[in-house]
Every structure is written in structure tokens, then in C-alpha cells.
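Q: Given only this backbone (184 positions), what sequence would you predict?
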């Protein structure tokens, strides 16, 4: 009985000494992070399956050497990309308190890894989650215009395309699309 009273006192004392703040980890915040990660994976899978992801990456403006309709910085900022992939991101994450970044990782010149910012909405917080999708681009894939329509120019014939040819095979380059999501 005395041992039980001492144990109960120790538990009460420990609970009173623990501070719970809005930034404390909890099962509800972990659940939200898991849900955001799952949603990001679903958006990437759906965009890849419908071809929206590939069309977004091929929507390249050779004269400005950046994706169509990006900011002067060369990437999309607070607005989602004006393509089907962007609309999918917007439907999934464009609600109060949720932000996302999209990074494109690929083999750069000389074989070194390289990264290009596609969407940048700020610096991710500590509770950010990420999902990735790998997309192989073929050398005969065509560049798309701002309406996502093929232009007739193959990426292997476009020297300004963001990713250089990675090999002499029919695979032009492999791009890992990474979506990072967090609550603000």
C-alpha cells in the first residue's frame, strides 16, 4: 500500500513538472503529419498515373530557360503551378495553415547530383513531412508549351532544358520529385 502511494506520488509529481506547450509533440500532431505525408504521396502517384507530373516537368520555356509562368526567380512561389499537377497540389494543400515546396532532384552536368526548385512557399518547419516520386524522362519526350501541349521539340534537342542528358541511352535523365509539406 505504501509502495503504491509512493509510486502514485512520483507519477503526479512527474506530470506536474512536464510542461505542455503548443509546440509539444502529440499523437494528434503526429496523426496530422502522417495524413499530410499520405496526401503528398497520393498526389504524386495520381499525377504520375495521369501524366500530369511528366507534362508539368516538360512544360519548359526555352527562351527564358525556366518553366512557363514561373516568377522571375525561376520557380513558382505562393501560387501553385498553372497546370494539372499544380491544381492537384492546390486541391490537396491550399487551405489555411498548410504550405509546401516541390524540389526536382536529378543527375546534373558531369554526373553530380543537382536540385532545381519547382515550388517554394517558404522554409519548412520542424514538423514537415516529405514524399517522393521518381520519373524517368526519355530522350524522345517532347517539350510542352504553357498549355501543356507538345511542341514537337524533343528534350534531347533542347539545350536549355533544366536537366542535362544523363547518359547515352534512351533514358534522358531520372528526376526525383520531392514534395515537402508542413503546417504554418
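A: Predicted residues:
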Amino acid at each position: 500500500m505504501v509502495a503504491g502511494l509512493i509510486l502514485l506520488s512520483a507519477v503526479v509529481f512527474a506530470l506536474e513538472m512536464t510542461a505542455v506547450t503548443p509546440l509539444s509533440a502529440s499523437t494528434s500532431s503526429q496523426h496530422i503529419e502522417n495524413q499530410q505525408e499520405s496526401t503528398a504521396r497520393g498526389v504524386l502517384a495520381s499525377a504520375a498515373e495521369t501524366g500530369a507530373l511528366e507534362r508539368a516537368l516538360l512544360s519548359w520555356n526555352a527562351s527564358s530557360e525556366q518553366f512557363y509562368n514561373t516568377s522571375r526567380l525561376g520557380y513558382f512561389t505562393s501560387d501553385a503551378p498553372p497546370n494539372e499537377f499544380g491544381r492537384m497540389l492546390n486541391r490537396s494543400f491550399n487551405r489555411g495553415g498548410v504550405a509546401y515546396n516541390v524540389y526536382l532532384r536529378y543527375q546534373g552536368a558531369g554526373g553530380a547530383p543537382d536540385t532545381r526548385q519547382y515550388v517554394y512557399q517558404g522554409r519548412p518547419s520542424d514538423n514537415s513531412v516529405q514524399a517522393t516520386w521518381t520519373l524517368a524522362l526519355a530522350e524522345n519526350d517532347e517539350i510542352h508549351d504553357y498549355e501543356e501541349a507538345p511542341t514537337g521539340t524533343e528534350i534531347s534537342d533542347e539545350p536549355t532544358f533544366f536537366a542535362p542528358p544523363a547518359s547515352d541511352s534512351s533514358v534522358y535523365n531520372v528526376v526525383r520529385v520531392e514534395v515537402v509539406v508542413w503546417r504554418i
